[in-house]
Amino acid sequence: MSSHLRKRILITGGAGFLGSHLADRMIAAGHDVLVVDNFYTGTKDNIRHLLDNPHFELMRHDVTFPLYVEVDEIFNLACPASPVHYQFDPVQTTKTSVHGAINMLGLAKRVKAKILQSSTSEVYGDPDVHPQTEDYWGHVNCIGIRSCYDEGKRCAETLFFDYWRQHQVRIKVIRIFNTYGPRMHPNDGRVVSNFIVQALKNQPITLFGDGQQTRSFCYCDDLIEGMIRMMNTCDDIVGPINIGNPGEFTIRELAEKVIALTGSSSQLVFRPLPQDDPRQRRPDITLAKEKLGWEPTIQLEQGLKNTINYFDALLSGKLWQ
Ligand code: NAD
Ligand code: UDP
Ligand code: UDP
Predict the structure, then answer these.
(1) What is the CA(263)–ligand 1 centre distance, in A?
(2) CA 62/CA 136 separation, integer angstroms
(3) Is the peptide bond before 127 cis (omega within 30 degrees of 0)?
């Protein structure tokens, strides 16, 4: 690629699940990629195959501290995404979203970079409006155990829009709905990885509550495509735009699909529903279709098969040797 088309791309949280897939796509497209990660939930294993690439660079750094680098585009993904992990050190979670956003926006302002925020469907909380459209303001508890994540992400959105209005920083905000796929951490704690690992080990599948709550699951490759399309839109498209798969399933249906696809002998067991667990969630993706020409292409069953193959290889020690 000629040097004027080669962009310098910063991915915060790039050693994580989604960030590492994005890094792969950006390297394949011929760009220079700098990954910044403190390895809280991410791991070098996710990007090990890129470490020898001359166009790839890895920096251990916590985004709650200032960062001085020269880049053209910033994808701000740093933040633990699984309730188990973001609740382990909730103060650090809020700091990561809020101080991390301030630092990355300050960086974008100084170097005049475009910056994309990976926000979340959690800004809608336990939603009264279904499916969720971007103009819905949400139903979020500000003092609960999920608040460090939800309110941190809401405040980050506020900062993005204020840096845009006040400092003309070129921002892009996407709201990501539950996304799954290879490279989720086996102990990540989110439902898809939990169920697949439990099924492959023939251990009980842990349904929280009655399993009738719903989620809409997007495969990682679809999500990354939407994220890149958003970054490439013209400057007047700032979002927020929902990126997710509108196919909605109960958690029990998900468990049954995983059992069927793995041929597991696992039984379902019921555990208490965590506090503030949203009852339902499904994206309205009209805006993504209209502004990005994007919609998901990978059905749950196919995405689950790919993810099961990955965890099967991981658990049997066939990966990263
Ligand atoms: P992940 O936990 O695999 O990745 C997050 C990465 O951020 C990890 O590599 C972690 O080590 C790093 N990180 C955490 N705190 C940091 C800090 N202070 N400084 C530097 N690095 C730090 O999770 P993921 O699913 O890949 O999520 C990526 C982003 O997408 C997150 O911002 C998350 O909120 C957002 N998101 C994900 C989903 C989903 O379903 N996967 C849904 C909504 C939003
Ligand atoms: N910042 C950074 N890298 C830069 C520029 C700024 O990390 O290249 C951080 C810096 O720590 C600052 C924050 O971003 O606190 C916000 O920057 P801004 O310019 O908006 O505010 P100020 O520097 O006036 O506090
Ligand atoms: N869940 C479950 N068993 C598990 C993990 C999660 O039943 O082992 C439920 C959880 O209570 C929630 C849904 O699955 O209703 C999705 O949980 P996850 O942590 O993946 O994401 P989020 O709640 O942030 O959407």
Answers:
(1) 31
(2) 32
(3) no
- Numbers of helices and strands, H then E, in the chain: 9, 13
User: Three-class SS of residue 171?
Assistant: strand
- Residue ID of nearest Cα to ligand 3 atom 10: 208
Residues whose CB falls within 8 Å of the CB of residue 154, separated by 6 or more in sequence, listed in order: 123, 138, 140
Amino acid at residue number 156: A
The answer to whether 173 and 239 have CB atoms below 8 angstroms apart is yes
| CA-100 nearest atom, ligand 1 | 18
Q: Which residues contact 246 (CB under 8 A, 6 or more apart)?
A: 131, 216, 282, 283, 284, 285, 296
User: pLDDT digit string (tens) for 209-247?
Assistant: 999 999 999 999 999 999 999 999 999 999 999 999 999
Q: Which of 185, 191, 256 for a ligand 3 pocket mutation test, highest count of atoms within 8 Å of Cβ? A: 191
Domain locations in the chain as residue ranges: 8-181+218-246+282-298
User: Tokens representing 169?
Assistant: 């920083």
Query: CB-based burial of residue 203 (10 Å sphere; 0-12 exposed, 13-18 middle, 19+ buried)?
Result: middle
Nearest ligand atom owner, CA of 61: 1
Domain spanning 8-181+218-246+282-298, CATH class: alpha beta
- The answer, yes or no, to whether residue 274 has pLDDT greater than 80, is yes
Secondary structure letter of residue 139 according to DSSP: B
Above 0.85 for ipTM, yes or no? yes
Catalytic residue flag (residue 149): yes
